[in-house]
Amino acid sequence: MSSFLDTVPVSAIIKIRDLMHTVKDPFRLDQGDVSFDAPDTVKEAMVKAIADNRSHYLPTTGLPRLRQLLAEKMRTENGIPVESDDDVVVTNGGTHGLWAVCQGLLEPGDEVIVPDPEWPPTMAMVIAAHAVPVAVPLREALGWRWDLDEMERAITPKTRVIYLNSPNNPTGGVLTRADLERIAAIARERNLWVISDEAYEHVVYNGEHISIASLPGMYERTIPVYTLSKSFAMTGLRLGYISIKDPVIRARAIKIVAYTTTNVNSVVQYGGIGALEGSQDVVREFRDELLARRNLFYDGLSRVASGILSGTPPDGAFYAFVRINPEWAAAFGLTGPSLSWAMAELLIQQGRIGCVPGVDFGASAEGYLRLCFGRERRELEGALASMQQVFATARV
Ligand code: PLP
Questions:
Q1: pTM for the whole structure
Q2: Is the CB of 119 within 6 Å of ligand 1?
Q3: Which domain range does residue 335 map to?
């Protein structure tokens, strides 16, 4: 790949993460990492795995018990007709799962319909597979969902995949059952695949999370991608999974896993067994606390950033994706080629508040800003107070 990799974009999230390490006493609202710690069920299972010397090679696709639990979870919780544990491939987080899927499914030149805005690695991974992302805007007025007529018009004879990410990062938009039924009908009619990134499946405040793979005739053409990162606060542990019914595509994806990891870290896989065998209350507790933090943060924004940053609290995920008032920016003299970068730099440099410019998520998101409210309440309150100060100075 070598020089071709130069064409694969680097997300601003990575650049900003590095930049934030140079900021003293930062408010880390830039990255999608909740402040919760992994539950005891995970930690105890990992400690035991170490004590039991679980430090040897494993089957490429993962521990049999873990795959069994994951298949069962997808059947009962997601309603996906996973008939065999063999469909399940354990990956090094959702990112690795998406890489394996993109490499295993996409042919050079295939067009992939992707939401815009969308988590930047999606574009990068599609491009790295020599495929072509076709960005279709999510509409804020529709709760950050697609206008599905517009989405359908973007399909060409070269389209091979519709890429879904619900709840969406960065907007928090959640696709409805009616959306998914229509997308499924389009996929069946046009003979398309669906890649369904369900990283935030457990973080839904309004509505419900539905996997498109659970709809009739869809699992055979859908590859659902999951992670324990967000649901169990296991971001650094790196545990995800994919489920692929088609044996040819699955064999390709398994090759990627084999040649990039041999197997996912053994101790972490035992941690995953602990997560799934243990109480699932923690998942709901995290969600409830995130809802409280969402409300706290939006109340705060309406106090300290009224007329400057605006948006509706999201239905899912844990990001405030807010619109920057261009008139305020012009009056304040916030200029530059990108308004969202100018605002991000102002908040990082003067307010120590990590945030990500909207334009990083797609052309249609220029003029927006993403702030993660999955942080502790104290940190959110600190960031709001700091923001108030930055904007107060700006008003002088
Ligand atoms: N998909 C989306 C939309 C995400 O936001 C993330 C992480 O931020 C992931 C997938 C992958 O997460 P991980 O690699 O930690 O499992």
A1: 0.96
A2: yes
A3: 3-31+282-392
197 lines ligand 1 (CB under 6 A): yes
Ligand 1 pocket test, candidate residues 30, 89, 95, most atoms within 8 A of CB = 95
77 with 159, same domain?
yes
Domain-ending residue, one of 226, 253, 277: 277
Could you say which of 277, 310, 339 is where a domain stops?
277
d(CA 135, CA 141): 18
CB 229 near ligand 1, within 6 Å: yes
pLDDT in tens, 226-263: 999 999 999 999 999 999 999 999 999 999 999 999 99
- Cβ contact 138:129 at 8 Å: no
SS (H, E, C) 147-196: CHHHHHHCCCCCEEEEEEECCCCCCCCCCCHHHHHHHHHHHHHHCCEEEE
| Ligand 1 pocket test target in 229, 237, 265, 321 with most atoms within 8 Å of CB | 229
For 97-156, how does the pLDDT look when each residue is reduced to its tens digit (9 = 90+)?
999 999 999 999 999 999 999 999 999 999 999 999 999 999 999 999 999 999 999 999
